[in-house]
């Protein structure tokens, strides 16, 4: 097998939960050596969040932690102690990249901000992921997913028009911030070849939201002065039907951007009597009232058929409707199976489980999971003794002192 894309790149991660660990996971799965630093005794917060096999909490069996930390080496280190800080500085001198997602004030108080780090290693790329970034009046504010979704202009456009705005599900902001941080970090690494030194990569989760998810809404405001529209399950009457609809065994995603696609769907339904009425067939006349009426007219046809029946008929008739997959259905989906998306990983505590695969594929330098997520402090001896030169006796002393 060819070398992985990031073979030889050394990454140091001091981060919790999702954004930082996902950033470094992308790099680790592409061949970078990632050393993950965790707090002695407690570890990454993700270890306590689960989900857990059989719903029994265990710090070594959290599905979230295991999925986010494949291919990493794991050490424990209390960087807030003088000795821990000295050890961290030794690791920093050997690293190409340092990724963290702690509040800026914590980083400044510990003397781990970029101005200090570049004195230790002028070529290091430091990536900081925070809710609001390293500058501005909000930089030291704490925030969670709901805060970032609201502050980034995302929530105002999600939900039913007559109800409260909603937050995006499944920690999407943290994952988007993580992948954005990975891209920015690699750009800084490439730039280092040209400028001869590292730099700070400052990632604001709120700004990622506004750029990636809210970008069109921002442009719409600039062009039309519209400050936010919640359309519920519909994305616009000009594209009716557009949204999720129930069927016999679940839900279908219906969308027909072209009038001809809508007309082909009417033909597929057998051109029912109501379809002769221009009120329902011309989408130029569509509004909320007509769309609601039309929903009730097409619903019986959908409810008589399964997702696969509808999907098959629509493919044959060039209608871009698709089944809404439940998570368990993804594992049997022929597209995922054909691309070998899900992979099996064996872990010392959980045994073999399926994991999500690569977010993209490289034809020459392939992605692969070769090592399960580390146990807490699993590689202390490998890193501190074999690499930094501490003796096993010194390691035991550091452990008793709470440094590792």
Describe what you observe in this structure.
Helix 2 (63-68) links the parallel strand 2 (33-38) and strand 3 (72-76). The chain has 17 helices and 11 strands. It is elongated. Helix content is 38%, strand content 14%. With 404 residues, the protein is an alpha/beta fold. It has 2 domains: 10-213 and 338-400, 3-Layer(aba) Sandwich (Rossmann fold); 237-326, formyl-coa transferase, domain 3, CATH 3.30.1540. The strands form 3 sheets. The protein has a 6-stranded parallel beta sheet. Strands 7-8-9 form a 3-stranded antiparallel beta sheet, with helices on one face. Helix 1 packs across helix 7 (172-195) and helix 7 (172-195) packs across helix 8 (205-212). The protein starts with 9 loop residues before the first strand and ends with a helix. The longest helix is centred in the middle third of the chain and has 24 residues, at 172-195.
Strand order of the largest sheet: 3-2-1-4-5-6
CATH topology type of the largest domain? Rossmann fold
Secondary-structure element order, N to C: EHEHEHEHHEHHEHHEEHHHHEHHEEHH
Biggest sheet layout: 6 strands, parallel
Using the 3D structure, state the CATH architecture of the largest domain. Answer: 3-Layer(aba) Sandwich
Number of domains: 2
- What is the CA-CA span between the terminal residues? 36 Å
Low-confidence stretches: none
Strand-residue proportion: 5-15%
Contiguous helical run count: 17
* Shape type: elongated
**Level of helix content?**
25-40%
- The first-level CATH class of the largest domain is given as Alpha Beta
Class by SSE composition: alpha/beta
Give the tally of β-strands.
Answer: 11
Tell me the CATH superfamily of the largest domain: Crotonobetainyl-coa:carnitine coa-transferase, domain 1
Give the rounded overall mean pLDDT.
91
What is the radius of gyration? 26 Å
